[in-house]
Amino acid sequence: MTPADAIALASTIALAMLGLALFFTVYRIVVGPTLADRVLALDLLTVLAMGFVGAMAIRTGITLYIDIAIALALLGFLATVAFARYILSRAALKDKG
Amino acid sequence: MRQIVLGVALVLLWAAITANFSTPNLALGALVALGALAFLRRSFSQPLHFRKLRALLGLSISFCVELMLSAIRVARVVLTPDLDRVLRPAIFAFPLGVKSDAEIATLANLITLTPGTLSVDVSDDRTMLYVHVLQHTTREAFIAELQNGFERQVREVFA
Amino acid sequence: MEDLAIYLGCLLLVAGAGFSLLAAVGVVRLPDLLTRMHAASKAGAVGGGLILLAVPLVALDASVALRAILGVLFLLLTTPVSAHLLARASLTAPDRGTPMIKINELEREKRISP
Q1: Which residue in the set C25, C45, C66 is minimally distant from B16, CB to CB?
Q2: Which residues is B117 bridged to in the sheet?
Q3: The domain containing residue B18 runs over which residues?
Q4: Alpha-carbon distance A67 to A54, whole Å?
Q5: Same-domain check for residues B14 and B55
Q6: Nearest 5 degrees, angle CA C14-CA C20-CA C21?
Q7: How many domains does chain B have?
Q8: Per residue in A25-82, pLDDT tens?
Q9: Residue numbers of the domain that contains A32
Q10: Does the interface ipTM go beyond 0.90?
Q11: In terms of domains, do B39 and B65 share one?
């Protein structure tokens, strides 16, 4: 097996696994049952998307993709923090009235 | 002196990340490094010792090993057909021996990424760290394991 | 030598994708939020980190390697923080999610109809 074959095979397997993982995660986002569950699944979804971009970087050989992957990780972190703050502030509002 | 070393390291890191060692890019990196150092001026009050660096290295290595072990353990739990039999979730209160903000934050982050434990909350008076455990044994065994493991190492790094 | 790095990178890529898949399976299978969080934060971070580390092994480029290592460090720093925040939020503010919304709608319909 030449290196080019190995890259093609490994990236195909990885992309298939990540696609399946994305599907499972979307199931959890749809089913819930609580808001925190959905936020958790969304957080995992960004990490999975980051992995997907990384796998594409390996498959195509365009290493510029890795910057996009890192930016996605940053975005996912900020979104999760914002959602956690939202859950807390919503509960505080509910307590008040 | 330490700030100069750190500044040079930051400029080199900037040049390496942008893969461009030309003079204008180095000047831009120096500007960014100056800005970052101005921001972080107050965070570097303590001098850094060689002994601490070694403790930090030891902590990093044991952390990487524990991280891989924890991922494998979670994977094994997930793949068990009968989940109710292997899952014994519990939330334990861990009495904190370390006191400063930096130590507590480091310990909590380490706990989250190590096998079967997830830090959930810190009590308001900072004496207790609440930890969610995936497969609990006894409270005493859990506390002893943490105290002899990461807490001691964190204290060595920050002491 | 270069071929070896490429094969190693492929191995890391598949391992990372496997851990990511297991994290997603865990998020679907485990019974409650905190146990799901174990799967998402540990297996998810390891999976994403392994894939990021696989890129420079295949590309064999120093600047890419540096960026990938910084990305992995960033991931390992932020994942526990966001997991901790979310766990804290869900414990201090337990919400019943979907059933709650249904009850609200029923109440509004009752209020409007008479």
Answers
A1: C66
A2: B133
A3: 2-44
A4: 9
A5: no
A6: 90
A7: 2
A8: 999 999 877 888 899 999 999 999 999 999 999 988 888 888 898 899 889 999 999 9
A9: 3-96
A10: no
A11: no
